[in-house]
Amino acid sequence: MRVLIIVLLLTLITVNQHGSAVNGGDFTGDYSKLSGIIIPGFASTQLRAWSILDCPYSPLDFNPLDLVWLDTTKLLSAVNCWLKCMILDPYNQTDHPECRSRPDSGLSAITELDPGYITGPLSSVWKEWIKWCIEFGIEANAIIAVPYDWRLSPSKLEERDLYFHKLKLTFETALKLRGGPSLVFAHSLGNNVFRYFLEWLKLEIAPKHYFQWLDEHIHAYFAVGAPLLGSIETVKASLSGLSYGLPISEGTARLMFNSFASSIWMLPFSKNCRADNAYWKHFSGGSRHGHHMYHCEEQEFRSNFSGFPTNIINIEIPSIRRFDAYPSVAEVAEANLSSMECGLPTQLSFSAREISDGTFFKAIEDYDPDSKRLLYQLEKYHSDPILNPLTPWDRPPIKNVFCIYGLDSKTEVGYYFAPSGKPYPDNWIITDVIFEVEGSLFSRPLVLESLSYFIVLSSMASLIGGSWVAQVYKIDDSKHALMLPSRPPYTKLAGGLISKPPFVTLLKSGDLVEGNPGAASGDDTVPYNSLSFCKNWLGSKVNITRTPQMSNSVPSIIPLNFYQIPVFVVSRVIKYFILFPISGSDIILVCEPSMEGVHIFFILPKLGDEVILTLGVSILPQLQLKPEHDGSDVQVELNVEHHHGEDIVPNMTRSPRVKYITFYEDSESIPGKRTAVWELDKASHRNIVRHPVLMRELWLQMWHDIHPDAKSRFVTKAKRGPLRDEDCFWDYGKARCAWPEYCEYRYIFGDVHLGQSCRLKNSSADLPLHYL
Fold it and tell me: Where are the domains of the chain?
């Protein structure tokens, strides 16, 4: 899983006031003294070299403190050297004999993985969060990053780096320095790290002081994109490799990923299977080091697929073994030339339980050399004396818990594998993928409805399961796949612009698959049932509110003749595009979708397999979708009945063209505690930490908790107006700045378009008071 990441936006403006009991638990201290602790996710922390490595045939060597993760220059020029600094021994998790890497420290370790003019924006992780904190006046010592070596298992993190001891000291130091508790934001794997810390803490603090320590040091926990039941994409990375966009082969990516013990940490597992509680065994006199029983409820065997939409793995096993699991190229060639019809392969299917308990890896042990190594690490997880992470979560014992995730994106939930006929590590291929898409399962990538305005470059297409598939985006940022009859040709260029491009004829939708799809789909990386498991933390009565994420008044496309075209250098590689023809012209605008809006560029000559954009038209300020709404489409249901173990599906209307955010809130079931679940339509797992709507809601919730005059347990959802100058924009339909009650036209030298001159009124300092 790609970066996948942890967050911690903390709080806000300096207000030397005391909170009432209405605001977050029973804390009545000075909320302006809150700290924010950011726990990053998988592959979201920089790693630096801690040794000297001479790289032959390359002018670039590795010296102490050189960037390893991520330095794309060295990756491209000396990939073998780079791998030595990245991989670990798959058994004892020690470094390569020739190179060691260690996590960087501080905020710079998590803002941009590969800083630079070109690579910086492409590898940005927490940079936008930090900018929001600065804009709202957060002091520098109030934001604390706690990076870690995301390659290691939790037990190794403590054994080698004393990470959890240091994390405990971080909370205690923040309390002493700032005078108040901390806010914890975790994204993706970072949530698993924080969960393990809470269990580890039970063995460090006397039981009677455990909850007191948590109340004093942690005010709220924001779990963003938490894979509470694991991530299915992990299986894909373990068997066939997942490059996450890096310029390395999938086989190389597989070798690297399977050397990390953290790969097991993210495996999918059943919600019906648990392990003995090692903590209580320890205090009752039991051994802390024995194997802990892994047992499943009867529901596991009565239901299909371990609570997931379908079987996660369907794999063909050869009926006759013709060569070792790690064959030579000659053996593979000889086997391919021999008669293969002597025995038909056997197809086996495996559920989440059968993956997490090792059944799957034992079944392919004779055919895959990584299975023994993965089984070894899997056993270490199951026998961990602190916590078996491959067991379902209980609600963390923290006063305020917010579970936040994206949904309704196309997400992979099952794979069909077959032997590839190639040697390890490329010995498996994916023959089919099962996706969940908004409550349905499809065996082939979904395709767009009949459209004629799309062109696909060959660099955008991949061979998946024998079919060419390309990914494109719609204007609403939703990602879709196109099934193509053949590999698309390179675009023919004339005079630097596309002339009479070959349009692709799109096919119909994929085949519907039977299974147990949820009410929605996941966030394009983690399936819905894993993300939404935190709904079990809500009580029997839940208040539900659904609001638009942003205003619908911004036009989706603005004609080109509205603009003078500024010329500037983009100089970066973009793979996925939306294409719009300009009426009466042979010019096609190539749009790169982003979380902030849509950038529009002309295509100029390409190099190699990628299209290099060096000249463009920027209409970002006008197309930017602003994170506000006027309250006209807010829906509320109070005291909705919720049964533990069942999903909550609100009976609310949806406009197909609007992206919503749905809030599930409970402040009654556990006295003095609050639990909330936020669902953001179409929010991508990897980009959610940069989502402007999420940052807005986090800030408003914390502002609400800060203020002594807050009259409700949660911030009001009735309306969302602009909070920053960037939230104001020009309304071309009315020829004025939108939100005139908050924004005004105020030109400042250097503004290049009307929207940039729309700014908050000077009288808008009390804007946050509207949300109490």
Answer: 235-391, 725-772
Q: State the average pLDDT over residues 315-344.
A: 54
CA–CA distance, 236 with 433 (Å, rounded to integer): 10
Cα separation, 379 vs 153, whole angstroms: 12
Contact 730, 758 (CB under 8 A): yes
Q: Please give the C-alpha separations between residue 431 and each of 308, 419, 600, in angstroms, as whole numbers.
A: 20, 10, 35
What pLDDT was estimated at residue 336? 45
Which residues are 435's β-sheet partners?
412, 442
φ/ψ of 492, rounded to 5, equals: -85, 130
- CA–CA separation, 202 and 199 (whole Å): 5
**Model confidence, pTM:** 0.79
DSSP 276: -
Q: Beta strand 674-681 with 400-407: parallel, antiparallel or unpaired?
A: parallel
* Catalytic site includes residue 523: yes
Q: Which percentage of the chain shows pLDDT scores above 90?
A: 46
What are the angstrom distances between the C-alpha of 616 and each of 209, 635, 733? 60, 41, 25
Instruction: Supply 244's token pair.
Output: 């996450």
- Predicted local distance difference test score (pLDDT) of residue 550: 76
* Cα(527)–Cα(508) distance, integer angstroms: 24
Range list of β-strands (E), 297-381: 313-317, 346-350
Predicted confidence (pLDDT) per residue in 650-695, tens digit: 999 888 778 899 999 999 999 989 999 999 999 999 889 988 899 8
> Are the C-beta atoms of residues 183 and 175 closer than 8 Å to each other?
no
Q: Are 272 and 299 in contact (CB under 8 A)?
A: yes
Cα-flanking dihedrals φ and ψ of residue 333, to 5°? -65, -40
Weakest-pLDDT range from 464-468, 491-495, 712-716: 491-495
* CA gap 304, 297 in Å, rounded: 13
| Distance, C-alpha 537 to centroid of its chain | 21
- Listed residue (41, 18, 44, 40) closest to 31, CA to CA: 18
Burial of 97 (0-12, 13-18, 19+ CB in 10 A): exposed
d(CA 401, CA 306): 26
Check 289, 644, 655, 770 and give the catalytic one. Answer: 644
SS3 track for 8-34? CCCCCCCCCCECCCCCCCCCCCEHHHC
Q: 35, 188, 306, 371: which is the annotated catalytic residue?
A: 188
Catalytic residue among 408, 477, 523, 727: 523
- Please provide the average confidence, as pLDDT, over all residues in the chain: 77
Q: Which residues, 6 or more positions from 34, have their beta carbon under 8 angstroms from its beta carbon?
A: 10, 11, 142, 178, 180, 181, 182, 183, 219, 702, 706
Residue spans of alpha helices (H) in 428-483 = none
3 state SS for 697-761? HHHHHHHHHHCCCCCCCCCCCCCECCCCHHHCCEECCCCEECCCCCEEECCCCCCCCHHHHEEEC
Q: Which of 254, 419, 396, 278 is nearest to 347 (CA)?
A: 419
Highest mean pLDDT among 346-350, 585-589, 748-752: 346-350
Question: Nearest to residue 312, comparing CAs of 391, 239, 234, 415?
Answer: 415
Query: If residue 546 lies in a helix (H) or strand (E), which one and from where to where?
Result: strand 541-548
Interatomic CA distance for residues 245 and 258, integer angstroms: 18
188 in catalytic set: yes
Q: With the C-alpha atoms ordered 88, 94, 99, 102, is the resulting torsion angle positive or negative?
A: positive
